[in-house]
Amino acid sequence: MTDELQRLRGARVLVAGAGISGRATIRPLLDLGARVTVTDRNPEALARSAELGAETVELDTLLDTAALDDAASMRDYALVVTSPGFPPDAPLLSRAAGAAVPIWGDIELSWRIDQAELYGPARRWLVVTGTNGKTTTTMMLHAILESAGISSVACGNIGLPVLDALRRDDRRADVLAVELSSFQLHWAPSVRPAAGVILNIAEDHLDWHGGIENYIDAKLGALTGAVGILGLDDPIAGGLRERSRSVLTVGFTLGYPDAGQLGISGDVLVDRAFADSAVLASVTDVTPAGPAGLSDALAAAALARAIDVPEAAVHDGLRRHQVGPHRAAPVGTVDGVDYIDDSKATNPHAARSSLLARDAVVWIAGGLLKGARVDDLVVDVASRLTGAVLLGRDAGSIADALARHAPGIPVVLVDTRDDGEMSSQDSGLEPGSELGQDGGATPELRRVSARGAGGPEAMRIAVREAAALAAPGDAVLLAPAAASLDMFVDYAQRGRSFAAAVDELRGGGTTR
Fold first, then answer.
1. What is the pLDDT of residues 330-348, one digit of tens each?
2. Chain centroid to CA 135
3. Which of 20, 115, 202, 427 is deepest in the core (most CB within 10 A)?
4. What are phi and psi of 356, to 5 degrees?
5. pTM of the entire predicted model
6. Cβ atoms within 10 Å, residue 249
């Protein structure tokens, strides 16, 4: 046991956040002999934490306690373990930092516990990060590892906390396929994976990180172990080789690979990084098809090859992999119009791939842009758009971009404000105006009142409006380019609401 973990025996540890990742820390901390207190604003989540053996305190009560106004009082805690949602400037963490109390993320705790072999011999970590494609790549990697006969589990940001994966007693995993967000990497400076990949980098979570450079710095936490892998076709990720701290850094490309790269030759995926020229799979073996799917497949293959997985297992794993829900998934065809659910496209970079995969698209978009800009996206896809239906807090910012770069496209703004108006601060549009903030002409903009409607009802209205704009041969594509939490529980609920609204259309049209 390391000295840092030994010091937790009998010590007080504060867990910030009682969600899935926060609750996953409770039992391991108790196993270490710590006295655990969990804080959150959600009373139901706190109750579930108490059932696991933790003391609990409501976050606002903790922050408002007069005795805690002095940062020195935080020294009652030997450690703060934070959930990924807490940014560095969160008041609780600022207070802990001011008191020189160590702050670990749940991934940092997971790594230290695994290296200390609290739950058996340490595992090999294969880390996947990037703005887009993380989950698909992680699941492809897991399928490849299973095909190789390696006991593995997909965990991390994908849904199963790493600590839960370490503690499971039904089946030990010797290799962890770990999806990590920039939040998790920010709070996990000690992680040194057997191999790690940065798929791509685009503007996302800039409000949390305070700018693109801090976001990049967090992502670079994946390139700290034996092998680092970069998506060379991405202009930012592809330029990070000199900043990699990995012993060996390789890359992947959709073009023919140079030595030290994986890529595509004709209709096959080829490895020239871990072999002279090994054929790994056929392009037709990869699902989803298209550039994004092939990039993810190359990244997964590179991670597997970094730990000597044979070519045959890469081929079998990629062939077996199936696309998860809400990732460019067809949900039906009504009156000759295809309806596609890509609710997982929670930023402009992710939405771009789906939009470019179709020739004629009615685009359903909007939500929380998290500081990202959509102008470049609209420029790239304007020629594909036959209409747009926008909803959510930052819908007006997308309407502004459409006004600037696709001024002839009909746009419907689904307005869910209780007063029937979206504020200029939240929407980017003056109430009742047909102009964006900077004067771009939007002659086709039309507002539809959904006053007071919740997310599912607003989505039903949006799908109905999109259907009215679409012609046979078009696709109605939910690719929001934004997060869902302003109107939905998560992107999955947003996708399910879209599919349910499409089902309603089937009463008035033919489907296949």
1. 888 999 999 999 998 898 8
2. 8
3. 427
4. -75, -10
5. 0.73
6. 18
